[in-house]
Amino acid sequence: MSSGNDAINMKSAKVYVMVALGATYVLELAAYFAGALDRESSSALQYLLFVIVLVIPVVAVRVSGRESSDSDARRATYWPLPWMMFWLIVLGAPGICLATNAMEAALGWTSLDLSFERVIKLMPEGSETPPASTFIILAVMVDFVVIVAAYTPIALGFEYGWRVHFGRRLESLGRLKAYAIAGVLSGACFAPLLFSDITYIAHPLIAAVRVLLTIAILGGVSSEIFRLSGNVTLCAIFVAAFFSQTVGTMNYIFPLHRNDWGGPFGWLSIAVWALVLLAVSRVPASRKVTDAP
Length: 293
Hints:
By secondary structure, the chain is an all-alpha fold. It has one domain (3-280). Helix content is 72%, strand content 0%. It has helices spanning 3-33, 43-64, 69-75, 83-106, 117-122, 132-168, 175-188, 191-198, 204-229, 232-247, 250-253, 264-280. It is globular, with a radius of gyration of 19 Å.
């Protein structure tokens, strides 16, 4: 790659970071000072903010990528694997989440809670409490719907922005350095949004560092998945499955209590999903990926 192209790519990368982080922080800090990120505030509003944060990188791509966004689109294939493989992944996702949480419960990082106190508190007063099996079945079904219908499509824009558009502009720095930079910066997008979720923990500063480190590791692994597969959708499934498991419906069956989902809990989740999706990334594509990495 010529030094001229390197300079253009670095300029584009800087513009992308300024737009992506700038817009994200303006939104999150405004929400924070408005009290929308308090633990007592509406969880629906917080989920909406989370979704917007995942979509902002699409805007940043449009602003920063006019000189080479077309080549990025040609090189990033959204689903080069057979559709049967897609359904095997997403149908197996709840089972993988349950198995991973069971391992983490055995290690003492969480525990199986069949009382479902957190769910019961959300039910109308005086409602009859259904049996535990009903809660588990509903949690698995919701987990499937969340990963397939909600988180994965939304995460596509985020992963395209950070792994494809931004990541490719750092190629001249070397793979590991590019992974680290993209992972840390993409994790920083969630810093204000996560603050309200860790302030109740005994050591919130340590928890914040662990959570952001976990997201940075998540980004690095996602970059490697894309390098091996040329497949943005696999990256999106990876991110969707991780967040669904750690802060989604599975958290009602295996609550973290006063622990954060960074550190060993998050790292084991990343390791399990990384093994699954890195193995899938080795499956031959169903069509040729133009200029794949």
